[in-house]
Amino acid sequence: MHFPIVIHKETGSGYGVTVPDLPGCFSAGDTLEEAIESAREAIAGHIEGLLLDGDPIPERASLEMHRANEDYRNGVWAFVSADVAKLSGKAKRVNITLPERVLAIVDQAAVREGESRSGWLARAALSYVQREAEGQLPGLLTDRPESSRRYRAEPRRRGPRRSSGGE
12, 10, 46, 9: which is closest to 26 by C-alpha? Predict the structure, then answer.
């Protein structure tokens, strides 16, 4: 996931960094390179804290919107990448099947966002679930949420159904 950062430098001081999409996420460095690396670490730590607290990762705003903010007027902009799939919790390998076209779209989006395929899918799924919980989305392909009992980890039994009644 790419995050825009704004870097400020006051005369006689180091570089200060603000991450507009993560309120309260700041860092600094003596050199520009140190400031950017410090921002990468601050973003990872900030997201880790949000995930551990069960809080959602805030939606990102456009760079144009941030640049219109007077607080960032004299700053220099850069982007820092953080892969949320590597944060908070043990990863579990799963096997899913997707149409090739869908997989190609997912891979393109992941590359565009600077994430792994797994990281992008995890973020997309969490974003969808959060928006659905907040009432911003209808249930998947219906106008009401589906029961979680419908989705099973174990395979369904296939074969003819047996009638419990006699003929």
Answer: 46
List the beta bridge partners of residue 15: 9, 29
Residue in 53, 122, 50 with CA at minimum distance from that of residue 86: 122
Fold of 1-82: Double Stranded RNA Binding Domain (3.30.160)
Write b or e for each residue in 53-74: b if 16 or more Cβ atoms lie within 10 A of its Cβ, otherwise e: eeeebeebeeeeebeeeeebee
82 burial (CB, 10 Å; 0-12 / 13-18 / 19+) is: buried
Assigned CATH class of 88-140: mainly alpha
Q: What is the pTM of this model?
A: 0.55
pLDDT tens string for the chain (167 positions)? 788 999 998 888 889 999 999 999 999 999 999 999 999 889 988 988 887 787 888 888 888 888 888 888 888 899 888 766 666 566 678 888 889 999 999 999 988 888 888 888 887 887 787 777 777 655 444 444 444 444 444 444 455 544 444 44
- Picking from 36, 30, 29, the residue whose alpha carbon sits closest to that of residue 4 is 36
